[in-house]
Write a structure and sequence with these properties.
alpha+beta, 4 helices, globular
Length: 160
């Protein structure tokens, strides 16, 4: 069975496999985050922004991403990224316009999922994925993105 879709995107499980393959043998977090983000951006349909933020002095600072320019710094008590970081749990928002405190870096975004990146010393950052389609992220996408976040944390040398 071919895991690739007609538009070149991948089924969620195949996306996890692709990310595992591109991370294999590399320990640098920035390099791994860049490749993971690109794999998600080009492998997951209906997304318009994919990126990472790293924790630095009680705020999230922009890391590797694909999409339009983004907010560089996010306070831990702000937006979907801040909520996921503070709770250290995945936050799925079906309609970002209904999320109080949502940060609109791209007006086209309608839904969002943010997965915390938690290493042995605790939170090191978040993986953030936006879509122009409401309710874009279901259980399969959540499981895939959580698996990718785990691969990124386990497969990289982290400071945190």
């Amino acid at each position: 069975m071919n895991a690739s879709r007609d538009d070149g995107s991948l089924a969620p499980a195949a996306l996890v496999e692709r990310v595992a393959a591109v991370l294999a043998g590399e320990r640098d977090f920035i390099a791994n985050a860049a490749n993971a983000v690109a794999a998600i951006y080009f492998g997951m349909p209906d997304v318009n922004w994919v990126g990472t933020y790293r924790l630095s002095d009680d705020e999230l600072v922009l890391g590797p991403f694909c999409g339009k320019p983004a907010c560089v710094r996010i306070a831990l008590d702000t937006g979907v990224c801040g909520a996921a970081a503070t709770r250290e749990e995945t936050v799925v928002v079906d309609d970002v316009h209904a999320f109080e405190g949502h940060i609109a870096c791209d007006a086209a975004s309608a839904s969002e999922i943010v997965v915390p990146l938690v290493g042995p010393q605790g939170l090191v950052g978040v993986l953030d994925v936006d879509s122009p389609r409401q309710a874009r992220f279901g259980p399969l996408e959540r499981a895939a993105l959580e698996a990718i976040a785990a691969l990124l944390v386990v497969g990289s040398d982290l400071k945190g």
